[in-house]
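Design a sequence for this backbone.
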């Protein structure tokens, strides 16, 4: 997977009447380190260092900022809220969606008070050369997280409580002299926050998930569900390092026709189990009626859905990498092996195939299609016809 698709760091910044503050960042050890030249100078932390991520090494120059500089950069003015936030500093591009939230929604005191407004910005640090389409995906992710936090703040003051806990940890661990602060002490702020604050744990999960497979399924405060995927990471199929531009996936969705079919890329039962709890029954019905020999038009009739509904559901499955577009399987179609499929005897696909079909060997089955061959011929070869 290309380096530019993975974020270097995720930041949580707030700004209110008491000022701005970098509440949390992750990772806080390997990518953000402390640079201290002498005891009389303030500690600087690099936004990122030459760090390993999934076996790939970054080799960019370091850009050092104090935490208060980071917070001031990301805590934009209120009139810039609910807009796309993008900032490029040297070799790093920062993407976010600052959102303005009214705090204390469910715990308002009886005495009338002026509403307390807070700005929250979840920011992702990306490679400066990251494609615009990839940066836009992280913008959408930041926006979804911000909206979920705003909902939970209104429902049960979740965000206010989390911020209060984070600030208390920052204050309790900042009693020492600035000159005596070292890397370990600085990291303990965020380590403690990660241990005690569920919001920090959620941000860690988001970071790890986007770096792992690009699929995020998260419940903020165990209530608001966030389902998100980076399409350029889920469409890897059988070839390691295979990369699809997000635009190419969107073009595929626009090109869907009623005569096309679907091929599920995951087990039907597993797919149904992974659907969000608030999924439409139409999705479940279509997946249950799915068959690779059926066209979308046939699925529409069998599932009692309009063709527009089928297109929408099919687009969802394709976008998430759970299905690909095919011409429905039939006897007269010609099939052959793609030139770049893995043919190693001990490949993971060969092992999985033998586990599912103990009496068959994947390479032997694939060899039957070394040349373009129809299913009709395989089911009723010419030599059998001549002998009958």
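Sequence:
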């Amino acid at each position: 997977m290309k380096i530019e698709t993975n974020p270097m760091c995720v930041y949580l910044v707030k700004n209110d009447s008491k000022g701005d503050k970098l509440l949390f960042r992750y990772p806080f050890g390997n990518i953000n380190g402390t640079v201290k030249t002498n005891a009389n100078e303030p500690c600087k932390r690099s936004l990122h260092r030459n760090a390993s991520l999934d076996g790939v090494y970054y080799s960019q120059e370091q850009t050092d900022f104090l935490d208060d500089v980071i917070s001031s950069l990301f805590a934009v003015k209120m009139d810039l809220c609910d807009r796309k936030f993008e900032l490029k500093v040297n070799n790093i591009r920062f993407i976010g969606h600052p959102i303005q939230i009214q705090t204390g929604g469910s715990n308002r005191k009886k005495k009338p008070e002026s509403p307390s407004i807070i700005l929250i910005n979840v920011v992702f640090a990306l490679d400066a050369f990251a494609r615009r389409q990839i940066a836009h995906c992280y913008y959408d992710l930041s926006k979804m997280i911000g909206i979920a936090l705003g909902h939970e703040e209104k429902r049960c003051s979740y965000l206010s409580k989390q911020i209060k806990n984070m600030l208390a940890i920052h204050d309790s661990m900042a009693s020492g002299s600035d000159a005596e602060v070292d890397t370990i002490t600085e990291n303990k702020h965020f380590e403690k926050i990660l241990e005690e604050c569920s919001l920090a744990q959620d941000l860690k999960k988001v970071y790890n998930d986007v770096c792992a497979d690009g699929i995020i399924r998260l419940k903020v405060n165990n209530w608001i569900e966030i389902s998100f995927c980076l399409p350029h990471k889920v469409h890897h199929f059988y070839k390691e390092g295979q990369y699809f531009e997000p635009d190419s996936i969107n073009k595929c969705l626009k090109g869907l026709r009623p005569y096309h079919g679907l091929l599920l890329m995951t087990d039907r039962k597993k797919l149904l189990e992974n659907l969000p709890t608030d999924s439409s029954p139409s999705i479940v019905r279509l997946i249950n009626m799915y068959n690779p020999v059926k066209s979308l038009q046939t699925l529409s009739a069998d599932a009692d859905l309009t063709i527009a509904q089928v297109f929408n559901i099919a687009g969802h499955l394709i976008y998430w990498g759970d299905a690909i577009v095919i011409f429905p399987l039939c006897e007269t179609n010609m099939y052959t092996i793609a030139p770049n499929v893995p043919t190693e005897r001990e490949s993971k696909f060969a092992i999985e195939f033998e586990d599912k079909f103990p009496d068959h060997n994947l390479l032997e089955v694939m060899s039957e299609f070394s040349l373009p061959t129809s299913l009709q011929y395989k089911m009723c070869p010419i030599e059998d016809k001549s002998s009958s």
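The mean pLDDT is 79.
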